[in-house]
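Example 3.2
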Amino acid sequence: MITGWRSTAWRLAIWRSAWRLALTAFIAPAIAFAADLPAQPSASPVDPANYVPAAPDWIVTIGGELRIGPKWAGAPEDKFRLTGSPLVSIRKVGTPPEYFGPRDSFGFSILDLGQFKLGPAVKLVWQRKASDDRALNGLGNIDYALQTGAFAEYWPAQQLRLRGEVRQGFGGEKGVTGDLFLDAIVPAGQFRFSGGPRLTLQSAPAIGPYFGITPAQSAGSTVAGLPALPVYHAGGGLYSYGAGAQTEYFFNPEWATHAFVEYERLTGSAADSPLVVQRGSPNQFTFGLGATYSFTMHPLW
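Structure, written as tokens:
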């Protein structure tokens, strides 16, 4: 009995040793192969996701501007009125702030070839009320006019801009207006200085409502201390020439401010109008002050 038991125990020991050798032979290569694999970083459940949002595509600039200009077209140099207007522009991220002259119409580039730009141009001409000034007595009211057209810009040098505009009037006047501006633009640290000559041409339907005098208007233009205005027909041609200058200051990439002065000398049939000769002046000055704020955003589509 003892001999049989020992024989059975001996056989079990042999089988156990054989299984151990077989498992070792099978598992060892797998462990060696796994050891040769590159270590994988362990993900920590508390680490934040490494997400970097895409850069915005637009820089939107908004602001406002106040102007002190002639009380009416051809008004004396000491008669002014205060007007205000919003300022809005959009440009691509990474591009410098666009340059806008004091007499530029509202618009944006639809064709940008670097040195040459083309786009729409829109300008609002303020109404003229006879009740605003006794010098306008009997001349009647002129409604607001909206001038729409196009502009073209050419940059012959990095700091020199030539801009032309052609606009058709609707409302108070229904003529054609053409402007030509030349500006030298000089950055200096946080400042940007600019200025240059101006030239404006207008057709008779654009000049007539403001400077022409009909027989009925002549008869009703008598004012105490002032003689009646004679009948006058205003024709088209060169309306004015002059010059302007502007100073801009950029506090930081977001905030900026600017101030300007524009001088316009009426000429041709506008300057010869009895309204200008007897009750006004061909010298027209405009002063302006404004501020803007810029921010980034993604396109809406």
